[in-house]
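User: Modeling request: complex.
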Amino acid sequence: MQRIGVFVCWCGSNIAATVDVKKVAEELKSEPGVVYSADYQYMCSENGQNLIKSAIKDYSLTGIVVCSCSPRMHEATFRKTASEAGINPYMVEIANIREQCSWIHKDMATATQKAIILGRAAVAKVNLNTPLTEGESPVVKRALVIGGGIAGIQTALDIADAGYKVDIVEKKPTIGGKMAQLDKTFPTLDCAACILTPKMVEAAQHENITLYTYSEVEEVKGYVGNFDVKIRKKARYVNENLCTGCGECTSKCPSRKGLNEFNMGLDGRGAIYIPFAQAIPNVPVIDTAQCIKFKTGKCGLCQMNCPSKAVDFSQKDEFIDEKYGAIVVATGFDIITLENYEEYGYSMYKDVVTSLEFERLMNAAGPSKGHLERPSDHKQPKTIVFVQCVGSRDTTGCGKEYCSKICCMYTAKHAMLTREKYPDTEVYVFYIDVRTPGKNFDEFYRRAVEQYGVHYIKGMVGKVYDDGQGHLMVRGSDLLANEQLTIKADMVVLAAATKADESARKLGTMLTASMDTNDFFTEAHPKLRPVESPTAGVFLSGFCQGPKDIPETVAQAGAAAAKVIGLLAKNKLKSNPCVARADSLICSGCSNCEKVCPFGAITYAETDVNDGTVREKRRVAVVNEAVCKGCGACTVACPSGAMDLKGFTNKQIFAEVDAICRQTGE
Amino acid sequence: MQMIAEKIKEKIKELTENGKISRVMGWKKGLYGYDSEPFVFENGDLRDFTYDAFSGANLCKYMIAQSKNDGDGKILVLLKPCDTWGFELLDKEHRIKRENIYALGIPCGGMVDIEKIKKSGVKGITEISEKEDTLILKTMYGEKEVNKKDYLLDKCLVCSSKEYKDCDELFMTDLCGDTAEYDRFEEVEKLEKLSSSEKFEFWRSQLEKCIRCNACRNVCPACSCVKCVFDNDNSGVAAKANANDFEENLFHIIRAFHVCGRCVDCGECSRVCPQNIPLHLLNRKYIKDIKELYGDEDEAALLTFTTEDKEPSVVYERGKNNV
Amino acid sequence: MQTDRGVTAEKEFQPKIIAFCCNWCSYAGADLAGSGRLSYSADVKIIRVPCSCRINPMFILRAFQKGADGVILAGCHPGDCHYSTGNYFTRRRMTLLFSMLDYMGIEKERTRVEWISAAEGAKFSATMNEFAGEIKKLGRSKRLGDLRCR
Amino acid sequence: MTENEEKKLCAEALIISGVKPEKCMKCGKCSGACPSYDEMEYHPHQFVDMVSKGQIKKLMESASIYKCLSCFVCVERCPRNVMPANIIEAVRALQERPQGTDRLTPDEVKNILDDDTPQQLLMAAFRKYSR
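Assistant: Request completed. Predicted assembly structure:
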């Protein structure tokens, strides 16, 4: 049996003016378990707290009820008071007789009666409280960043600068991501490489950062503060430690049939290649599907020509096991394939290109060395038509339902750069809406129209076809002029919809981090916790959470880093003790609780159970207390009642219900 | 049926000889020919084995206990189509050790309800044999022939599918009879159309018959908890018997809720109820609701969601048409 | 109150209403109603739960068993759950439970789910008033009341 | 035709066609793709827009409802599943129905048949001019 003390607060006149506090204290004294009751003007004041402390000592109280303001206000205060007086902080319950009673009722009798009932419910609950201890787990002071684009690099740099170790895992042979492929960036038109490559170098040289390029995350176990991650380092067939990056091998490779991924396949590369000049690490990789040595066993020119004996055909995939305290997802994006949009003729006509391909065509390091020429005959195009929303905002299932967000701005950029460099080129842009919310964004778009004379046409393209004389005929509607027009163009540029990177879904499953139907990672709270995943210890950076441009990506990368630093700065993680608990004697191991847990906190283990009559090995649920957040979804999914929530047990809630329903005067 | 039973026996012998199985979960002849019961046949002794028109019992739930020990070898379980759904559920919920079981899907042409025959006035049955769709009833007062189809179990009247799930082998299953033409939601719809007080009276009159024998619970493949919440003194709702009307309701509402979305509609609860309470109508209501509100989903309805789910107020709006 | 039985009988019917509120949204909404002095029926008593998905149908039935006349569940708006998906489960569970109560002829008007955010103090107060009014109109819980353990 | 009658007809057109014009995001791709655009006074996107605004009279009276080839390219191209061709078809039906009899009978087909006329055209014409 508990020995409970009841403390009724006046809150000055806030409570006492409408609630007869003396009567409440008196009435509650006769409740089961109550051995002491008192009222005081301000329970939360030092004197009030001392009153509670001395009552706990004098009456050997095991639990207390404070009838006062909302627990959201002072529950923590009174828990601390109880703890200082030597009883478990979770032996405290608050009856909210201010917000829920004195402030909303005017009639003294009514309010007093209600306060008594609320007090009774709290007493009934405390009678069933048990001491709870906050779980503690150590924090591994190392972070993992998955994805080496601008988001991943920025997050890693920020974390590393704070003094923590960071590993970047990038599936491609180099870091840099999509931004490395871009020519200029909107709205300032500074060159992407000029602002990105220094960051890439900084990441590579940072003493706290380890790069795992050409690597993928294989397996993730553990929980916040203590993740165990297995990383697969794919074989490059070039020894990174020996290679000097001289490029001798790449120039000697006799196979030239490979499509240069970095240039969007617009030109070729050897079977052994470095993706681009500023690649980090500056170490080649062998494409085994293309390599003659791997296909026929004969060749090996690269190996023979390597001055530092770095080429190693026998290299195998390596596995690295590492522990991390936090994981940042920065898997970025890709663009959709356009096979569902044959009306634009992307797969039929060489001169219909995606915007990312156009970036490469404009880029000084691109296949045409920055001279804009169309892919079919390398002539400079005189008329270019840009089409926006290709696959974005499409509800038919062919494309993506969402707005890709970045296309309006980069199309304006492309149009502007084209007119700047080749003023004799006519540039048309078909648009549905021009969406330019952002600092200096609309000004940028207006400059394209007003200063550069880009023709914006409100309407969509219905068909692109060949006129048989090397021109592309672009037929679309001009809604404002109410006419259908056909433009004779030399080149068509499609703003293909963006999509989450293909690796994201698999990774989401591995991390038990929730995703939306578009494979974008969901944030813990759409407004208040935008860079955290609902899964504790997993953070989101960049496009993987939803479409973003570079400034937003960098901002979010920094925010994610700050969250990671905040986590890693702690030596121990204290966890909420009000978490779920499975009774292994009753659990049937049916997995229903696991399916409703939003946090993946429930696992199953073959456990020896012995209830005195039956002894057996059985599959039972185990709650990982460090991961459980205590929502209680599992407790209702569990039919046998084996799953209960500490601090809000079934019996406690039953007791509260019973106390409230009890007949008055009974 | 006798022919099928013989073939099944041969099949069992073959499997036993091949060392694939060590025991058989099947039905054992009773005294009168209509009272076969679940039985584990061991050591190849199949003398009392039967599979007849009265083998309605679903054997899948026995697999929880029977498959527990790894050392016992494999047990063969005979499953009619509707039995396999419960079997699949038990497997999905890790309640059985599937690797210790050999599930044999067997044909079913509908099972007979002996109570219905008795109610029709036939007394003193001593023996029953079958000839195609005819049942030959030997009674103390002479012989009588009846059509099997007229005395099918309620659950067989609304047989919805002859699909077998999760079986290791299907045996002669092309001999399955047709599925029923009746709409299994018809009874539920009829009840839904009643006024609120009529519904209340109906269920009151039914549930007050409940003697809390727990047969419905014990036979149900979805009610497979190691310890039922109503048996657990610590749960706060434990009750060995119904102390009052409320507890009758409570037990059945909660039981229906606990199996909601997991119930495979095998109809066993109603078949075994000694008080003939149409318990399947509670479960079937949930099946109907789920179908109407959420459509077909792979996961049990209460273990998943979509962000576009209907609000609970849909219940009030739906009810407005028939107060 | 045996002595003044006559008085009690004439006294206005005071329903017993339990409101289960999730800690993050609806309980905070109730606090806001309080600090805004937005009065609502004193018949409503709040029980705090971490999330609406903690509410077991057994709690609701238990309340009716012990003499409650109405039970209302309040949680974060769908999509805003503190635990991200808890209230989606609540929505399904309660839809199906209420449908079953209706099917058994038990007055469905006595149970309700409302989504009330931490910013909706006014909505909290209005909802509770409206619900309490409804229950008052319905009178003492009979269908479940008759079955009640006395 | 009063305003109300016109509104009623619009509602009917939406029911017949099953089109939900509120799904339209006014991109104009339907009209951009329409092969019969120059022949039509009103264009696919205008049909969607005007019917949703309750202005069906002009559409019913225009020749555009007969100029539509029913090629369904607008339906195929629409990124929002709006189905403009269906609404054109519905407007045509509303214009045709009260007139009753078949406006193109199989007997007449013989006379207008020649080697250059594609079969699809005849099929489309038949669908359009008869009930």
